[in-house]
Give the backbone structure.
Amino acid sequence: MSGVVIIGAGHAGGSAAAFLRQYGYEGEITIIGAEPDLPYQRPPLSKAWLKGEASGDDLYLRPQEFYDEADIAIWLNKVVEAIDTTDKTVTIDGEQMVYEHLIIATGSKARPFGCPGAEETPYHLLRTMADAEGLKPHLSAGRHIGLIGAGYVGLEVAASARKLGCEVTVFERESRILARVASRVLSDAFMSIHRDNGVDLITGAEVVGVSADGDRKNVHMADGTTHTFDVLLVGIGALPADDLAKAAGIACANGIIVDSEARTSAPDVFAIGDVTSREIKPYYEGRYRLESVPNALEQAKQAAAAITGFKAPPTEVPWFWSDQYDYKLQIAGITRPDAKLLTRGDPATGAFSVFHLNADQQLICVEAFNRPADFMAGKQLIAKGVALDDAVVADAEASLKPYLQ
Ligand code: FAD
């Protein structure tokens, strides 16, 4: 076998195969995925699917017929054990398979929960369909769920669990939720919304141990208190699944280092999606590991274009979304500690945006909370790099359109 081999049948891997065919690739394509499912979307696992508003079939990126018709071989329940970049092979079940081009799309994995007692205490994680299927039956009305870590996924589960009638307690070590990824205004808005919806949200909460007592799970805090739950979910972030690449000698630093064509340090080896550390030039300096669907799709296009010689796609402004209760958060761009923050609209009304400007008054990030028009305009303004006027930005009624012409 030769052609393109894709490791990981996730959002990035599945999409890369489709873009390869779309861009005219005629060679063999083989996707190898460790999970039992065809490539699927993970975002609904903490949102619509968990609430019972979407079926499993709704999650698949494409049906089996698509892969059959496009002549894309898809091997599920298979783990790639090693990569040899000199012989250009991957190892599966001890057998070598030759590639002409390799795409590593192994995603991210849950950060290990190293808390004392974790090994003896049953708890849930939420990364895969199997994780979600394991969690969902426990979220019936009246059950008390304890959530360790208030990142976006954890908070989405909190909102979904409340909708299902569960009691929910969330523990966050920082003094505010989303401290590293959102502005204070946004954190405060989410804290109020969760508390108004009955979530017991505890910040500055240092979990020092967990234990099991029959069916009950205990969470022990640094202040000596213990909280007891029916269900425990740990959501303390993710790490790049870059072990295979590291073992193969491919350059990694918090993910596989790739260029703007998704090329790694090894010839004919590409990496895409959550597993990568990438540049976002010309918009931002430095390298970023982005965990988002738009990033997975963008890099899938980059790799497919580089392999086929198709026109390289322009770099996109990164963006992300989160749905909690009836609120839609959309974030475009990336902030920096010295950014000037301007709030557009009153957070108390449930619709506002936070604009992050650099020293040249250019927009570098927008957090749009139930203000999709600000998100759309903000994304374009980041790409354009025009200098904005504070008074216009801070006036929720002032149009941003003149800046877009
Ligand atoms: P993945 O989709 O994780 O796929 C990687 C695949 O590679 C996995 O199936 C894994 O089993 C497989 N694999 C790993 N190692 C091997 C191996 N050695 N051999 C074979 N297969 C292997 N993003 C958003 O933009 N918005 C959201 O609202 C949002 N919500 C999310 C909610 C949840 C619950 C989760 C878990 C993620 C969410 N994300 C969201 C993030 C988004 O789903 C990811 O950024 C996206 O799935 C990344 O795609 P990927 O292909 O890089 O990785």
In short: The chain has a mean pLDDT of 96. The chain has eleven helices and 25 strands.
